[in-house]
Amino acid sequence: MAELHETDWGEERDYTLGSPQLQHVQLRSRIERDLTTLVEQLTARHGCCRALEVGAGHGTFTRALVSAGATVTVTEMSEPSVRVLKQAFAENPDVTVLYDPEGDLPAKLAADFELAVFVSVLHHIPNYVGVVRDVIDRMPDGAAFYSAQDPLFYSRLTRINAALSCVAYMLWRLGQGEIKRGLATRWRRLRGIYDETKSADMVEYHVIRQGVDEQALEQILCERFDDVRLWTYWSTQSGLLQRLGEQRAAGWASTFGLTAVNHRRQPVVPVRDPAHPGRSTKQKTSNSTELDPAVSVG
Predict the structure, then answer these.
(1) Are 239 and 24 in contact (CB under 8 A)?
(2) pLDDT given for residue 8 in this prediction
């Protein structure tokens, strides 16, 4: 998998191209505000914020975390990206960059961090639910988790949102060149054929399993955090359709993020609410000061 990542995501790759969270100012700014708020809250509570950023690309959100006051450790599967990141942050003692070709460092390191960040990463991971579970199981009390820019589970998209996402992608693809390659990839996917030698099929792993199961992720986060928020929003490479979809009246949604705060080392145990039979509430294990869960770009 690391070799396929490096095929398309080398030192010369422009990460902005094809990445809505980098390409569109409003999306990028929303994520940066979320991360800034989380860092400030965690610093107020713990006296510092050590952030574990998984898959930083060329460091756009690493800079946001550092600017907010965090010390950041980046794990990155692409060796060319590691070289770019190390060069970019060579003079910054608050950033450590680690090459992680096997993708197992986040779980090994998670116990030392107050914040775990996955921006546009989970859909690249085959066993994303297992990876997230392994990370949050090891995080310390009071920690937070943040993810953004992953595609909603395809079966939960409305027909309109599914059609709009497809049209927006195709319009963008036609303007990028390599039309033959793009059409070949689309034809394979329509027939349910995925080539393990093609980075377009394996690195963009969500096309194999039909998106990312946001509800499964929300469920495991609820087991470890007091406050979890799942938020959905519109995201596409097309500038025109992005602007249209950002209008609240449009009601378009293709992408999701998750914010989870107030981590508990012991799983949160659901208890029955006597006032509302059949409804569960969370049994808290501590009365410590808690973070504000109202952090989202939704």
Answers:
(1) yes
(2) 52
Residue type, 154: Y
Separation CA 138–CA 103 (nearest Å): 16
Low-confidence ranges of the chain (pLDDT < 70): 1-24, 168-209, 237, 248-250, 268-298
Q: Of all helices (H) and strands (E), which one includes residue 232?
A: strand 225-233
DSSP alpha helix (H) spans, the chain: 2-8, 20-23, 25-46, 60-68, 79-88, 105-109, 128-138, 159-174, 179-190, 199-202, 206-209, 214-222, 239-245
d(CA 287, CA 46): 15
| CA distance from start to end of the chain | 32
Assign domain 2-283 one CATH number from 1.10.10.10, 3.90.180.10, 3.40.640.10, 3.40.50.150: 3.40.50.150
> Domain extents for the chain?
2-283
User: CA 125, CA 90: separation in Å to the nearest integer?
Assistant: 28
